[in-house]
Amino acid sequence: MLRPRHSAMMLTEKKRHAKDSIGTLRRIWSFLSDQKGRFAAVVFMVIMSSGLSLLGPYVVGKAIDTYIVTKQTDGFVFVLAILVLIYLSLSLSTFLQNYWMIQIAQRTIYLIRKQLFYHFHQLPIAFFDKRQHGELMSRITNDIENMSQTFNSTVIQVVSSMLTLVGAVCVMLWLSPLLTFVTLLIVPMMYGGMKWITNRTQKRFKEQQQNLGELNGFIEEVISGQKIVKMFSQEKRMIAQFLSKNERLKQSGFWAQTYSGFIPKLMNVLNNVSFALIAGVGGILALKGIISIGVIVIFAEYARQFTRPLNDLANQWNTLLSALAGAERVFEILDVEKEERDETEAISLPEMRGEIAFRHVFFSYDKEQEAIRDVSFSVSPGETVALVGPTGAGKTTIIQLLTRFYDPDRGHIFIDGHDSRSIKRASLRQHMAFVLQDTFLFQGTIRENIRYGRLNASDEEVEEAAKWANAHSFIMKLPNGYDTVLNQDGSGISQGQKQLLAIARAMVANPSILILDEATSNIDTMTELKIQEALGRLMNGRTCFVIAHRLNTIQNADRILVLNEGQLIEQGTHESLLEAKGFYYELYHSYLKKEEIS
Ligand SMILES: Nc1ncnc2c1ncn2[C@@H]1O[C@H](COP(=O)(O)OP(=O)(O)OP(=O)(O)O)[C@@H](O)[C@H]1O
């Protein structure tokens, strides 16, 4: 009883697949808009070369009947010259079509890659929070490269194979319908075999791409987290995970390749069957005087021409399917909605004082569990506010909302009296700077990294900021000073030095609101003093939010906001909160105990 339903489901699934593939092809086509002329030239060349490849054998067959069978030599040289011309033109048109198609393919891929990268920058932070970075990398590199390889040659081969196929059938029908029928006997066999194989390969290729993405993501994670892996002696576990992912990729790759490998074998067998049929049936027909020897030669050649395109089609079809699977994965990202647009009437703030008010703010990441519940507080310009609370209390979430990486589900955040939703995101962020625990430096010189805070800062301003950030002296000791090139992860300089650079970068940005995330952990005392001094300078006169886990670093904050399970449960100065003997008091004493033990 289950069967009909099952096959109905399969049918719907297949229809969906076909619809998806057509949709994907349409989208690829839309990237060709500025190259339609060149594409038309390629199509013309493909038609020409397909026509010439059919004309060649036809002339050969006719020459056999006219000159060889009748032993006539007059005009034979002329026919040979025509044949040479046909095959030379065929080579030229094939060369041109490939040359232009590669140009088209490379430009199309360039445009898709560009759009994808632009799109990445417009996606909400939530998108990156939820996905493995390596897997995303795989889409922008592997999948696009796969598409590029395919469009360079496969598309032409598929089109030219189809044309040759149709042309060959037409000429064969014209020459001998009976022998055509015999030649076409292999088509149902081919169709059945191909259908069986492609049903399996399509699924496996998609799996292969997916597994490759997962493996890449994992490798990227392990390489960037190598120190953590070693610190926690997790090498064996990482290797075990790698092996299982690698095994899955091997399996899907093995089956994808195995199934697609059946295609040439099947075609070979059918090729030989078809040749034998033509030779046998053609021979009988020739003996009966129904067809000439030349026609048998033409058929034998066309049968090869006819099964070769089918063969090519089958081979290339798989490549095309695999590229389409890649293209679908790329378009999937292009379909992810961009970060909500700023409201049309959203304003830019040329200046910001740094006055902040949260009013009954509620927020959840997954629309199930609230990360922030009914939080209200106000911050005056220039005030330093510390956010404390156990892990998962919602400290980072407050910052995510302040920076509009996310917007509240309910309630309002006011900045300088404006609802944050009415301020353009870029304008809002322009007045903010971060000094995070995990300082992220880009590959480039120290100067470029500091200038990242404000791209139009002069060299003098960069050096001035570095001096204020206590970074100048260590920079000058580096072999190339400000022109020392840092790796992406900033290896080559210490953790503390990285933080000093981050402070200099924030200085250059000259923000009204500063966000510090536990900026002084794991640093030696000397460097910590330098950092504290630099931070003091940076914080002066700005509204500051400090997320701190080490409660001794925030005692001088103007106000401490104590969060627990998404709620703001206490606020006040360090002294007033200790006096109140509430949650902060408990937190502080358990922190002191922990410090004593360690
Ligand atoms: N990207 C996310 N997607 C889903 N849930 C999240 C996400 N980020 C945080 N959360 C959840 O929201 C809640 C608040 O997290 P948040 O990161 O704000 O806590 P925190 O106080 O900064 O913690 P920590 O001190 O550990 O950094 C937690 O329950 C956390 O699991």
Q: How would you sum up this structure in a few lines?
A:
The chain has helices spanning 2-30, 36-68, 76-122, 125-130, 133-175, 177-184, 186-224, 226-231, 235-287, 293-334, 395-402, 425-430, 446-451, 459-468, 472-477, 495-509, 525-539, 574-580, 583-597, and strands spanning 356-364, 370-379, 384-388, 410-415, 418-419, 432-435, 444-445, 485-486, 513-517, 543-547, 559-564, 567-572. By secondary structure, the protein is of the alpha/beta class. The protein folds into 2 domains: 36-334, ABC transporter transmembrane region fold (Up-down Bundle); 356-597, Rossmann fold, CATH 3.40.50.300.
Task: Please provide a written account of the structure.
The protein contains 19 helices and 12 strands. By secondary structure, the chain is an alpha/beta fold. Helix 1 packs across helix 10 and helix 7 runs parallel beside helix 10. The protein is elongated. It has 2 domains: 36-334, ABC transporter type 1, transmembrane domain (ABC transporter transmembrane region fold); 356-597, 3-Layer(aba) Sandwich (Rossmann fold). The strands form 3 sheets. The protein has a 6-stranded mixed β-sheet with strand order 6-9-10-3-11-12, with helices on both faces. A 4-stranded antiparallel β-sheet has the order 2-1-4-5, covered by helices on one side. The protein has a two-stranded antiparallel ribbon with strand order 7-8. Helix 17 links the parallel strand 9 and strand 10. Helix content is 66%, strand content 10%. Adenosine-5'-triphosphate is lined by residues 129, 365-366, 371, 389, 391-397.
